Amino acid sequence: MGPHPAVAAIRLAVRRVLHDILTEHTSTPHTADHTADPHERPPSPLVLVACSGGADSMALASAVAFEAPKLGIRAGGITVDHGLQPGSDLRAEEVVLRLRELGLDPVESTTVRVGRDGGPEAAARDARYAALDAAAVRHQAAAVLLGHTRDDQAETVLLGLARGSGIRSLSGMAAVSGAGGRYRRPFLQLDRQTARKACMVQSLPVWDDPHNADPAYTRSRLRHEGLPALEKALGKGVVEALARTAQLSRDDADALDTWASQAEASVRDAAGGLECAKLYALPPAVRRRILRRAAIEAGAPAGSLFARHIEEVDRLITGWRGQGAINLPGKVVAQRQGGRLVIRQG
Ligand SMILES: Nc1ncnc2c1ncn2[C@@H]1O[C@H](COP(=O)(O)OP(=O)(O)OP(=O)(O)O)[C@@H](O)[C@H]1O
């Protein structure tokens, strides 16, 4: 008898990603030592599972522990202690033990200091990714695997929609992201229920993060109130539809980014200035991307640059009536001087 369908589903999702990692690993040169035997096999790649101890990442760890050895891939695990709750250090130790019991090696816990920038959720995320990046470099890992599911993706799309900042924010999380494609999300097409079920049938103990149920957090309210209300109104397929929206939006946003990169060269004069008449002739989606990029290049922090800022700069092109300079985050100033748009730190 084969494994339970939920276990089969998580293993299949993981197997696909591990195959990709292996293919990339064997097709890239691994040694700078040109005297080495060219026929020597490269060392087997290491993947690290980022595990909170929650159902999604425990399911992921179990599937990786099962599939990786069959492909000759080494699999380790890492848990990040954010130090935000009493006893979080003990919980991290417990997660380490569980990952070792699954057969992962190396396994480590790392403690981070969470700052305040951007609110509690963003600060914890920044600290976590910095720690995961450092661990990946330290262990020379080929990839770090994350347990985000289709439900997480649907939530991310809705959060982007509510921000009202364009299709890039509707495109949610990428299956592959980070430096050199370091982060992989094998469960992005899998629902949370399947991951939970897979833990249950494998008798894997899971830890439910109290933050996930705390209505003080936007994502938690969305998970427990927003999405159920949407499903009630629109039907069960809404999570899947939102995840599909993410993929379609990502493809569109990528295409527009490419278009904007190519168009940018054509709107600059010999001195590198932006020519207003040429910008005016571009479709708004392309023009605004060029303006946003120019503002970031001039020193505006991407995270503080909102659609309304870019709209105001855009009016210097499309609704010119002699307005004054526009102040942007990071002390960047956008100004029209004759037929040129000048964006620089003032
Ligand atoms: N403390 C942590 N240590 C290591 N990895 C983490 C930690 N918290 C989150 N992650 C990684 O990020 C992924 C998404 O986490 P998040 O808390 O946003 O979602 P989740 O659905 O609650 O996931 P999980 O059920 O695995 O906790 C996790 O599946 C895991 O891979």
TrEMBL record:
<keyword id="KW-0067">ATP-binding</keyword>
<dbReference type="Pfam" id="PF09179">
    <property type="entry name" value="TilS"/>
</dbReference>
<dbReference type="Pfam" id="PF01171">
    <property type="entry name" value="ATP_bind_3"/>
</dbReference>
<protein>
    <recommendedName>
        <fullName>tRNA(Ile)-lysidine synthase</fullName>
        <ecNumber>6.3.4.19</ecNumber>
    </recommendedName>
</protein>
<feature type="domain" description="tRNA(Ile)-lysidine synthase substrate-binding">
    <location>
        <begin position="274"/>
        <end position="341"/>
    </location>
</feature>
<dbReference type="GO" id="GO:0032267">
    <property type="term" value="F:tRNA(Ile)-lysidine synthase activity"/>
</dbReference>
<keyword id="KW-0819">tRNA processing</keyword>
<feature type="binding site">
    <location>
        <begin position="52"/>
        <end position="57"/>
    </location>
    <ligand>
        <name>ATP</name>
    </ligand>
</feature>
<comment type="function">
    <text>Ligates lysine onto the cytidine present at position 34 of the AUA codon-specific tRNA(Ile) that contains the anticodon CAU, in an ATP-dependent manner. Cytidine is converted to lysidine, thus changing the amino acid specificity of the tRNA from methionine to isoleucine.</text>
</comment>
<dbReference type="InterPro" id="IPR011063">
    <property type="entry name" value="TilS/TtcA_N"/>
</dbReference>
<dbReference type="InterPro" id="IPR012094">
    <property type="entry name" value="tRNA_Ile_lys_synt"/>
</dbReference>
<keyword id="KW-0436">Ligase</keyword>
<dbReference type="GO" id="GO:0005737">
    <property type="term" value="C:cytoplasm"/>
</dbReference>
<dbReference type="InterPro" id="IPR012795">
    <property type="entry name" value="tRNA_Ile_lys_synt_N"/>
</dbReference>
<comment type="similarity">
    <text>Belongs to the tRNA(Ile)-lysidine synthase family.</text>
</comment>
<keyword id="KW-0963">Cytoplasm</keyword>
<dbReference type="GO" id="GO:0005524">
    <property type="term" value="F:ATP binding"/>
</dbReference>
<dbReference type="GO" id="GO:0006400">
    <property type="term" value="P:tRNA modification"/>
</dbReference>
<dbReference type="InterPro" id="IPR014729">
    <property type="entry name" value="Rossmann-like_a/b/a_fold"/>
</dbReference>
<keyword id="KW-0547">Nucleotide-binding</keyword>
<dbReference type="InterPro" id="IPR015262">
    <property type="entry name" value="tRNA_Ile_lys_synt_subst-bd"/>
</dbReference>
<feature type="domain" description="tRNA(Ile)-lysidine/2-thiocytidine synthase N-terminal">
    <location>
        <begin position="47"/>
        <end position="225"/>
    </location>
</feature>
